[in-house]
Amino acid sequence: MNKAIKKPLTVLAGITLAISIAGCGTADSGQSASRSTPSGSAAPQAKKEKTKLTYWTFQRHDADYIKQKIQAFNETNKDNIEVEMTMMAENYPQSLDLAFTSDQAPDVFATPGKQIELYAKGYFEPFNKYLTDDMKKKFGSYVFEGNNQFDNNIISLPNVGTTIRLIYNVDMFDKAGLKPPKSLDEMVVAAKKITEVGKADGIYGWSLPYKSPASALDRSVAKMAEMNGFHRTGFDFKAGKYDFAGWKPIIESLRQMKANGSVLPGSEALDMDPMRAQFAEGKIGMYISYSVEPGVYKNQFPPKIRWDAALVPTIDGGEPKGAIDPGAGTWLSLSSKSKHKEEAWKFISYMYQDEILRGYHEQGFGLTVLPHVLQGAKEPSIPGIKNFLLTKNDAAWPVAPQGVTPEGKTWHEEFTKYILSGGDLDKTIKDVTARYNAALDKAVSSGSVKVKADPNFDPKALQKK
User: Which stretches in the chain have pLDDT values below 70?
Assistant: First the structure.
């Protein structure tokens, strides 16, 4: 097996961390034709040149597992295909966009967020003509317009969903005499108490990767909003428009923790992995994140503390009024710019095999929502995964309008600014709501978005029975 570190593309220098998975052996150099052969014997046939494919991903937590599967594919496929995997840095969407515009796009890539924007740019090769009847049967009920399908063009299929939980330092909670908070007020109190107990040792009650407002708030504020009956985008399905007013107590609770000194100093400059490293060292009392965390702490940042997970708090500590969407819609996509689409699809269909998806679930890299994968699957044994397993409070929401881009800053940026620096939250919420509705009206007028209010929509009804 030839393993090498693949150098980043020139145009992306400084942006990517590349990990290369190469097949055993190399393509014939072309010299075999000039070699002498014994008299009367046939000259050996030149080996067929390998078809080399590039695969880009931003998921670090499952890197070892995926590398193993790619290695097996490279060694066993009968089509002389060799796949190289490149692990991207924090700004994956921008790197991907740059690669497409500079004709350096990968053949296969992990589907990023904001799929509609990439779809509008023509980056996806639809799966439709490649899907077998068996795949249509297995994945058909998980194909949603506006999520993994646009204009009836399927751009990806699901692998797993991701639950969201409050991750907490068990040692510090025990030391401070605390239990996982059930309400926002309890969360603020717990963060302050942990800071009081641990500050002398550099331990603080709370952190998020505030360097990236979208990363920080998509995993916290947006998901707490869903648990409390508000969609993660701020869209109100009942009214058919945006309304962030219900988010106020959630945003205010994060501001209180910052204002009273409960937030790890420097959090505003932290990306996710450096923050995880701080938690593993025992310097953070709690934060909110995805079900990839057990894999991260097993493979990347072995913790020096005991840790666990709990349901995120509701506003008042009562029963959830909604559910957190596990987002089981996308995983791998095929590039429209690939010069080897047929070969790339063979790799994609290989990765979507039951046994690979089942192993992914069982090893705790993500939680499958696919019945055909769950059938016969063992419960993940990875440490810390138990309280991430799906409950009735993890359920899909309808798809909100896609491609609504407001003028000025996003809600992530505006609310992060308030959380870190304070200000007039009522004014900020009013401004954000107005700008998102103006953008929605513009999108509706142009015909790019269709909206219909649903007065009977009940977010609590989303919960699994």
Answer: 1-47, 89-90, 465
Provide the b/e sequence for 380-390 (b: ≥16 CB within 10 Å).
bebebbebbeb
Alpha-carbon gap, residue 343 to 111, rounded angstroms:
19
Beta-bridged to residue 361, according to DSSP, are none
For residue range 137-175, what is the model confidence (pLDDT) as tens digits? 999 888 988 889 999 999 999 998 889 999 999 999 999
Give the whole-angstrom CA distance, residue 253 versus residue 212.
19
CA contacts within 13 A on the Cβ side of 272: 24
Q: Which residues contact 428 (CB under 8 A, 6 or more apart)?
A: 414, 415, 418
pTM of the model: 0.75
Determine the Cα–Cα distance for residues 440 and 205; give it in Å rounded to an integer. 38
- For the CA atoms of 358, 364, 366, 367, the dihedral, rounded to the nearest 10 degrees, stands at 70
Tokens 């979208």 appear where? 214
d(CA 163, CA 147): 18
Cα separation of 197 and 203, whole Å?
8
For 96-132, the pLDDT digits (tens) are 999 999 999 999 999 987 788 899 999 999 999 999 9
